[in-house]
Amino acid sequence: MPEATPTSYYYLWHLTALGVIDADYGPVPPAPPAADESAVRALPDPVITSTVWDAIAAAGPLRPARVALIDVGISPDHPNLTTRLDRDASIDLTTHRYGARVLDILDTTTSFDREERHAFFSGLNIAALGNMGLSNDDRDYLGDLVAEYAASEGVLRRLYHPESLFASHGTCCAGLIVGEPAVVAEEGAPSLPPDGAFYGDSDELRTSGNRNVIPYFGVDPFSKIISIRTSFEDDVRQFIAAFLYAYHQKADVIVLPRGFPDPKRSVVDPKNELKADLELWKNQDAANLFARIAFADQGGPELEPKAAQKGSNPDRPWHILKQLILAVSKQIPIVCAAGNSGESQLIYPANLAADNNGIIAVGAVSAEGFRSGYSNYGEGLTLVAPSDDGEVFNRHQLRLDRLSPFAAQHDYTAFRLREYSYSHFSLLTTDLSGIFGYDHGSDPWSAILPYSNNPGIGGGYYTTFGGTSGASAQVGGLCALLQRAYKSRHNPGDRLSGPQIKSILKAASHPDAIVAPGTRKLTADCMNAEGEDVLDPSYFFGAGLPNAREAVEAVLAM
């Protein structure tokens, strides 16, 4: 197939694809003659001509939006994130039921062996959410839970920050949302002022002298981010607490770049085409095996130590969580990842997205214009955002990384599958420094200790990233842009509702957009069924690829 994207790589390419930055990549030079294998297609460096940040800045005063990221945490020490992270609002729900927060380890006003009490949920009131479609019993259950949290006390701790070690996924997502260039400090001033950011008194964008730091930009580097740390355990209370806390903090955007382990709503239904195949006589043995595997864990309480006892309703808190998410989304946009299993259905809670709520389900597309090989799609998908790609080899398509040495070891032509172009573009974003990050540096401690002569030794400040996690993080940044644009024309406390933000983004999205710097329009592919690519484009891309400039202009015109 003809090559669709330039060979030159630009680490902010995804911002041009979303229209956050207008960049001129120049014409794509013709491919060199096949005989000249040493020839390389040289491309000029892209020239940034304008940004959507300038349009918002010209509209009114700077009023940052607040983004609540429900994930595994955010590194508080990353130079591109430290001024964007709202430490005083962030919370850890994994180590204490009512919330925990780590105090500055260098603060000498408190002893190391002491915990302070702190009421994270003081004043919590959800009356404005209404009855949320709950029964009387469920409403009483939630009311008791809210009252318990409102009267609760969490802890403030003097410990090494766990999110400096175990928050790689959240750190990557945070960089895509609000990452900003680290600034050069004045003589004698702290290297990263608490409110400094790069939009201080000077208009000059200056980067740190740290050799490991680059001038990195998230989709909205002018907004703030709140870390709401949750685990992957099936503890429904921490997820209820996460949404209650985001609502209590009056977040302008909630980003959920992962799924929830709801034992009922997260179950993936077998596809119709798979069920049809299993009903064939020749596939009876396979159907029996499928049934045994699918229902092996439903043998009764004696096979499940964590099963609920008689007289309890284990689905009640999960049902309340679902209704809480729906109710909160009508006031605050909730951006959810569609999932990375290549299924024609979305993971939970992205699959709750509907026209009457503010849940935004985000799929991933590559710079080649195709759905990313792993990205879930199907009914309910709201829109897509740029990300990396994934190889596919099934009975419907072939998508291979032809640059991989393993690709040359096999003859795939015998399968006579339609081949789709694989994209080598991925997302560059912020990472934990050291061995716990995606990029596995060598020394996680030197990046944060003040007496280190060379902060950041070991590298690992940045990594390649992708998935629908990366795509949803970028859309979370777009939502922050829209809320910030709205605040610039109104009061700082004002915000657009979830359905309003969703409607604006959908109206500014295009199903035939080109994922710059690629050259191919969004194009459907056959993934799970024969002839699937003839279905409506919305099945693969929702409303399409959003354009930040169009969306911001629509908000500023309100």
Concise description?
This protein has 3 domains: 13-26 and 53-89 and 167-264 and 319-388 and 423-556, Peptidase S8/S53 domain (Rossmann fold, 3-Layer(aba) Sandwich); 267-314, no CATH class; 396-420, no CATH class. The protein is an alpha/beta fold.
Verbal overview:
This protein is of the alpha/beta class. The chain folds into three domains: 13-26 and 53-89 and 167-264 and 319-388 and 423-556, Rossmann fold, CATH 3.40.50.200; 267-314, no CATH class; 396-420, no CATH class. Helix content is 24%, strand content 12%. It has a seven-stranded parallel beta sheet, sandwiched between helices. Strands 5-7-6 form a three-stranded mixed beta sheet, with no helix packed on it. β13 (392-393) and β14 form a beta hairpin. The protein is globular. The two termini are 45 Å apart.
Radius of gyration: 24 Å
Question: What's the architecture of the largest domain in CATH terms?
Answer: 3-Layer(aba) Sandwich
Strand content: 5-15%
Measured between the Cα atoms of the first and last residue, the distance is 45 Å
User: Sheet with the most strands?
Assistant: 7 strands, parallel
Arithmetic mean pLDDT: 83
Oligomer: single chain
CATH superfamily of the largest domain: Peptidase S8/S53 domain
Helix content range: 10-25%
